[in-house]
UniProtKB/TrEMBL annotation:
One of its GO terms (biological process) is protein homooligomerization. It comes from Prunus yedoensis var. nudiflora. CDD domains: BTB_POZ_KCTD-like. SUPFAM superfamilies: POZ domain, Soluble quinoprotein glucose dehydrogenase. Pfam families: BTB_2. Pathway: Protein modification; protein ubiquitination. The lineage of its organism: Eukaryota, Viridiplantae, Streptophyta, Embryophyta, Tracheophyta. This is BTB/POZ domain-containing protein. Residues 18-102 form the Potassium channel tetramerisation-type BTB domain.
């Protein structure tokens, strides 16, 4: 019989409080806060823990950085104490807790304004340090061509890898897939595809025409892409030029777009 003093069955509730022992330091917060990291985060998984267990959940991580993480979940912003840690330290912890997207959003600069622009940071490749071309990703990462090398930097602008190409210098680069770059040089013929994950050359494309001897040593001057194609602008020593349409899935030439071949020689 209900006497008016009944209590709900134990279980997770957004108003319940939870204690966390992070690296020996005790934290107390609400389940709604730790659930703010999303259903796939480590902290959200703790919200399924029975509230009958009086012992704090132990997490063997840095408690000082965790206080920044907790503040981020509460307010969607970083506290002033975050300046005590490097961007990489914060990124590593956010990755561990599964809230990298929240940190990325909090650390992102405001929308670009041409009349109010300022330097966010400076990226300096370790070798052959004069950048000649760049390509950016939707996730905020950037690839930088310097000399005959390609260096990759993640959304946090931390160096994640460098590969050496066979080219002496790279003047055009396009991000064809998340791990595949199309590169060209105004001093060497051909368009080349490199795989960052496998650190290998996937193949090359050359503009040739056996019926026209003027089409030789065609160099790439620009590269662009669409969801299904790559567009490469080629230029020959005698100024013949064209744009080749290349299928992304096969890395094969589909067609030759409008260009200029000049007047054919008389025979």
């Amino acid at each position: 019989m209900d006497n008016g003093n009944s209590h709900p069955a134990p279980g997770p509730c957004t108003d319940d409080r939870i204690k966390l022992n992070v690296g020996g330091k005790l934290f107390e917060t609400t389940l709604s806060t730790i659930q703010a990291g999303g259903p796939d985060s480590l902290l959200a998984a703790l919200s399924n823990r029975s509230t009958d267990d009086p012992n704090p959940v132990f997490i063997d991580r840095d408690p000082e950085i965790f206080s920044v993480i907790l503040s981020l979940l509460r307010s969607n912003g970083l506290p002033s104490t975050a300046r005590r840690f490097s961007k990489q330290e914060l990124a590593d912890e956010a990755l561990y807790y599964g809230i990298e997207s929240q940190l990325k959003s909090a650390m992102s600069p405001p929308p670009f304004s041409g009349i109010d622009a300022s330097i966010v940071t400076t990226v300096q490749p370790a070798y052959d340090g004069c950048p000649s071309a760049i390509a950016t990703g939707d996730d905020g990462s950037v690839w930088i061509a310097h000399g005959g090398q390609l260096s990759s930097y993640d959304w946090n602008l931390s160096h994640s890898g460098t590969i050496r190409t066979h080219l002496e210098d790279i003047t055009s680069i396009c991000r064809v897939y998340p791990d595949i770059a199309a590169v060209g040089s105004e001093s060497s013929a051909g368009l080349y595809f490199y795989d960052f994950s496998g650190v290998r050359n996937l193949g090359s494309i050359h503009w040739t025409d056996p019926n026209d001897p003027r089409i030789f040593k065609a160099r790439v001057t620009a590269i662009a892409d669409s969801p299904s194609s790559v567009f490469a602008s080629f230029d020959c020593p005698h100024r013949e030029n064209c744009i080749l349409l290349i299928d992304k899935s096969t890395l094969k030439i589909v067609s030759e777009q409008a260009g200029s071949r000049g007047a054919r020689r008389r025979t």
